[in-house]
Design brief:
The structure holds 2 protein chains of 2 kinds.
Chain A: E1 5-10, H1 14-25, E2 32-38, H2 59-62, H3 69-72, E3 76-79, E4 83-87, E5 92-95, E6 100-102, E7 105-108, E8 112-114, E9 127-129, H4 133-143, E10 148-152, H5 156-167, E11 171-175, H6 188-200, E12 203-206, E13 211-217, E14 220-226, E15 231-233, E16 236-239, E17 243-245, H7 248-252, E18 263-265, E19 276-278, E20 283-285, E21 288-289, H8 293-307, E22 322-326, E23 329-335, E24 345-351, E25 356-362, E26 369-375, H9 381-389, E27 423-425, E28 430-431, H10 432-441, H11 447-454, H12 464-477, H13 494-503, H14 509-516, H15 525-537, H16 544-547, H17 552-555, E29 559-560, E30 566-568, H18 579-592, E31 595-598, E32 604-609, H19 614-623, E33 636-641, H20 655-666, E34 675-680, E35 694-698, E36 703-707, E37 719-725, H21 727-744, H22 751-757, H23 761-769, H24 777-789, H25 794-799, H26 802-805, E38 823-826, E39 829-832, H27 835-840
Parallel strand pairs in A: 1-2, 1-7, 2-3, 7-19, 9-16, 10-11, 10-16, 11-12, 18-20, 33-34, 34-35
Antiparallel strand pairs in A: 4-5, 5-6, 8-17, 13-14, 14-15, 20-21, 22-23, 23-26, 24-25, 25-26, 27-28, 29-30, 30-32, 31-32, 35-36, 36-37, 38-39
Chain B: E1 15-22, E2 30-36, E3 39-49, E4 52-62, E5 64-65, E6 70-71, E7 77-81, E8 84-88, E9 95-97, E10 116-119, E11 122-128
The chains are: A alpha/beta, B mainly beta.
């Protein structure tokens, strides 16, 4: 065995790290001693998403290095030690700490540095650049004493920096020298839309502004002056006016560099010294610097392949197409975005109402795409890029590619029409052929597996819709049905499992899993089975054998919120509440410092309760006559009502009394998804019963019963199941309808979706519920009556049982609450502090 | 420091074991959160089935959910994916492997794991010297 040779990588940024990963992936660390220098105090992190650091992601979250990766693969990392010189004759790298490391091959991945324009006062305290986590920490520390921040540079990085400044809570301005934002990527019309959208977010944009001076008073930055004589007051300035390659090492050791900087490389990414390679933003290929991460990764791949003798791949320039979300706005630019090709023609759409701009650049014949720009909605990016890269002839109306389909038929090309060589994921350079092969060979049936196996879709995510289409297409070709199995643990649909559970009298998850499933269960099947058990046997959901099945909302009988605290919603049947109870609610909210809000279901929601406070809060509420509102459960929520004939001069029936009766009858009913209801006292429909899972509207003769309506994500009107019913019949039909739905719906399927899939539609539903065509009406009614008779208030049962109440604490070994919870005041109430506020608190 | 180095075979001489609670304090197949030296640690008790509580395993990972930025993982549902023991965050439902802390839904994310054991019915978490004199419990 020959001795291992030394491969030294200078720079541990995104590209330098990618190169090391590729060397390991190609099993090359067996042949080389891999040594890397990293001048920063931390290993490689995601610079592309740097601004998310201020949105709460930590340095750890941004890290690109799997814990243990360097240790396990024997890679020497010299952290916080900068390479300062290269001795090409002796083939040695000298570091700032005095190390002298010999190399056989050397890779320069030194990246770039931010360009700071030569403006008077550009070194004043309060001016920053935006490149590293250290830069961000310095900005955050300084921003604590600031109210306004300016970013100089309205390019891609400048807008990212503006996002960071905005996330710090400063009044944010962007100053751009050019007459438009992102001058390298988008045109004037696109920039106008982008500017409009960004300004709507509260960021002020100044274009065609040349900064001449940064003014400070008593050592503190106060304002900036522009060439046109105007001024802008600010406390902080971030320069983001472009990058320059870090080529000082190359210059020091005499490698060829470009006139305007950059280490000259050939197709193999070799510098003028064949033992030295350069990759990423420090490299200059054909007089061009590639300032995006994807080309850097391609260069890393070329060098890794060369050094493993696995293939002779070449870097021959890269596509600078890009799709980004800047300040929450989609922006994409690809190919010949400015129509510079001779004879190029354009199709554009400008929608200043919705803030959307789309431009296609076509060839002279108008049948092929050369490039384009998308602002505000970049969902077509993946398809358009494929059409361009694969030189696919366009449909007769290319404008259809930019618009929603006009005849119900999508103009978008199907993935089946793409050639195998089509590059689907440009971040990780994954082709259609590679994705399809992986799906076939590894029998992949879900998106996470495809991502994991191929890495497609794990970069910017822009290609995920295409990857999903490929997966579906391959599954169809393989004759795989899209299974409706509950999850990997049960090869049955929810409906089948529900049937098995009732027929076999199964009363616990373990028993069901043992008889009909496999493995240990998961977050999908456990709550689903818990719900089925509850709506069949109605044991308290926190009985010990059911405890580990409950989602945290059911486990703590409250709704978890984003910071890990809970909200409390007591039942207010029909929305009717006495002044005494209202006062009691207010007192509880006041005493426990809870944010208070009226819900859409005529109840009151109390937010910000810690787990340890929940039993105390509920003891007080129960003493005041309240009971659990089941807002936390997939269960009946509320039955809204208008005041009806009791007060209203138009009302024809007592809708409030009926709403209260129905809410008390069905309270606590566990179902595949939440259930909402309402009762209106006349056809004016003030309670909005037709948007509910079941709704009742009064008529002169009785009650009309509507079912399967929905508000929410996809509003749908309820359908009239039966008219002019007396109350007894109404309740009878409702009992049947609800249990029929509970027995047959899929997991997390609302009544509207269930109805839309129901074969036979409304006629069939009427036959089953009204005419009892299946002969199961009595059984359905009996099951409901059992559930009504065995109802218990889950909270009352919990606080009466010290064993159950014991679980309500954040720490098992300390009485203190979660110390990470922080609040600020807004409109005289508390709200969770944002990540940026937490950093400052 | 970004990288948390997790010893696969903890060297017992350098570990100080801190008693957290009794095994019975943790319901089978659920988690609790422990406060150890200023850190929030989620501890899970896994059994074969509720009726077979003799065969107990305990696992400890960070209680911090990096996706929601809340300290909530001890309240997630415990289960398996293709045989890999995991917990699902109660906020956005990402899954984390109980033995490695690896996020099963995002390879770039990994959580610290901690040594944990059952001694005479007591659940103990191991911390590394030299913090032992300030162990806050």
């Amino acid at each position: 065995m020959t001795a291992k040779k030394n491969l030294v990588v200078i720079g541990n940024g995104m590209v330098g790290h990618k190169f090391l990963e590729l060397m390991v992936a190609k099993q090359n660390h067996q042949n080389w001693n891999l040594i890397t220098f990293c001048e920063e105090p931390r290993v490689a992190y995601d610079r592309v998403n740097l601004s998310s650091f201020f949105a709460g992601r930590t340095a750890g979250d941004l890290s690109l290095v799997q814990p243990g990766f360097y240790q396990e693969n024997g890679i020497q990392v010299h952290l916080g030690d900068r390479a300062v010189a290269i001795d090409r004759d002796a083939q040695i790298v000298i570091s700032a700490s005095g190390l002298a490391v010999p190399y056989d091959k050397l890779v320069l991945a030194t990246g770039s540095y931010p360009f700071v324009p030569p403006i008077t006062g550009n070194d004043t305290a309060g001016t920053f650049v935006y490149r590293t986590i250290d830069d961000l920490e310095a900005i955050a520390a300084y921003a604590k004493q600031c109210s306004t921040g300016v970013v100089i540079g309205g390019g891609l990085l400048g807008l990212e920096a503006a996002n960071a400044v905005k996330n710090l809570g400063l009044n944010t301005h962007v100053v751009e020298f050019a007459p438009r934002l992102m001058p390298m990527q988008i045109d004037d019309a696109g920039s106008a839309i982008l500017k409009q959208k960004i300004e709507a977010l509260g960021v002020t944009v100044h274009i065609s502004k040349s900064t001449t001076e940064i003014v400070s008073e008593t050592g503190k930055l106060t304002k900036m002056r522009f060439a046109d004589g105007s001024e802008l007051a600010t406390d902080l300035i971030v320069f983001s006016a472009g990058i320059r390659p870090r080529d000082e090492l190359a210059r020091q050791c005499g490698l060829a560099v470009g006139e305007r900087g950059g280490i000259v490389i050939n197709e193999a990414c070799q510098t003028s010294d064949p033992n030295i390679y350069a990759i990423g933003e420090c490299a200059l290929y054909q007089n061009r610097i590639y300032g995006l991460v994807a080309p850097g990764y391609t260069m890393a791949d070329v060098v890794a392949a060369t050094l493993s003798n696995s293939a002779t791949s070449q870097f021959t320039g890269a596509d600078m197409s890009t799709k980004l979300k800047l300040l929450g706005v989609d922006v994409a630019s690809f190919g010949d975005a400015f129509g510079r090709t001779a004879g190029a023609r354009e199709v554009t759409i400008t929608d200043t109402v919705q803030g959307i701009y789309k431009k296609l650049v076509l060839n002279a014949a108008g049948d092929h795409i050369l490039g384009g720009i998308l602002v505000g909605d970049a969902s077509a990016y993946g398809t358009l890029l494929q059409l361009m890269q694969n030189n696919i002839a366009l449909p007769p109306h290319p404008e259809d590619l930019l618009l929603p389909p006009r005849t119900g038929q999508s103009a978008a090309i199907g993935v089946d029409n793409l050639p195998d060589s089509a590059q689907i994921c440009s971040c990780n350079n994954v082709s259609k052929a590679a994705i399809c092969a992986a799906i076939r060979e590894h029998h992949l049936t879900d998106l996470p597996s495809v991502k994991k196996c191929t890495h497609a879709g794990t970069g910017c995510g822009g290609c995920v819709p295409l990857v999903t289409d490929l997966l579906k297409s391959e599954m169809r070709k393989a004759g795989l049905e899209v299974k409706n199995h509950l999850c990997e643990h049960f090869p049955y649909s929810r409906q089948e499992l529900y049937h098995l559970l009732r027929v076999h009298q199964i009363k616990s998850f373990d028993q069901l899993l043992h008889q009909f499933g496999q493995g240990r269960g998961c977050e999908i099947c456990k709550p689903a089975v818990a719900s089925m058990l509850a709506s069949t046997w109605n044991e308290h959901i926190l009985e010990s054998q059911h405890l580990s099945l409950q989602d945290t909302n059911d486990y703590f009988l409250a709704n978890i919120q984003k910071d890990g605290t809970y909200s409390v919603v007591p039942r207010v049947p029909g929305g009717e509440i006495t002044p005494e109870k209202l006062i009691a609610l207010g007192q509880v909210a006041q005493e426990f410092g809870l944010y208070t809000k009226i819900t859409g279901g005529q109840r009151i929601d109390l937010f910000g309760a810690r787990v340890d406070q929940l039993p105390q809060i509920w003891r007080r509420l129960i003493d005041a006559g309240f009971e659990s509102g089941h807002a936390y459960g997939k269960a009946l929520r509320t039955v809204k009502s208008c005041v009806g004939s009791t007060w209203c001069r138009f009302g024809v029936q007592d809708s409030t009394s009926l709403a209260i009766e129905l809410e008390l009858r069905y309270r606590g009913l566990r179902s595949p998804h939440k259930l909402k209801s309402a009762v209106s006292g006349c056809t004016r429909e003030c309670a909005e019963a037709q948007s509910k899972d079941f709704g009742v509207i009064a008529t002169e003769k009785g009650w009309n019963l509507y079912v399967c309506g929905n508000g929410g994500i996809k509003p749908q009107h309820a359908v009239l199941l039966a008219a002019d019913l007396d109350k007894t019949t109404l309740i009878q039909y409702l009992d049947r309808f609800l249990i029929f739905y509970i027995r047959t719906a899929d997991r997390l399927e609302r009544t509207a979706t269930w109805f839309n899939k129901l074969e036979g539609g409304l006629d069939y539903l009427k036959q089953v519920i009204v005419e009892d065509s299946l002969g199961i009406a009595a059984e359905l009614e009996a099951q409901m009556q059992y559930l009504v008779d065995t109802y218990q208030c889950e909270w009352k049962a919990t606080i009466e049982n010290p064993e159950k109440a014991k679980r309500f604490r954040h720490f098992i070994n300390s009485d203190q609450p979660d110390p990470s919870l922080l609040y600020v005041e807004e409109r005289q109430q508390k709200r969770p502090a944002t990540a940026a506020e937490k950093a400052l608190l | 420091m970004i990288q948390t180095i997790v010893p696969t075979q903890p060297n017992c001489e350098t570990i100080q074991w801190i008693s957290i609670c009794t095994l019975e304090d943790i319901y089978p197949n659920t988690g609790v959160c422990a406060w150890v030296n200023g850190e929030q640690i989620a501890i899970f008790r896994v059994v074969g089935s509720v009726n077979d509580t003799n065969n107990n395993q305990v696992y400890a990972i960070s209680n911090y959910d990096p996706f929601s930025q809340a300290y909530v993982l001890s309240r997630g549902l415990v289960g398996d994916r293709n045989g890999v023991l995991k917990v699902a965050s109660p906020i956005y439902k990402q899954n984390f492997c109980l033995t490695t802390g690896r996020c099963l839904d995002d390879e770039t994310v990994s959580l610290p794991v901690f040594p944990v054991r059952i001694i005479n019915g007591q659940v103990e978490v191991g911390v590394f010297a030299p913090h032992q004199e300030n162990a806050e419990i």
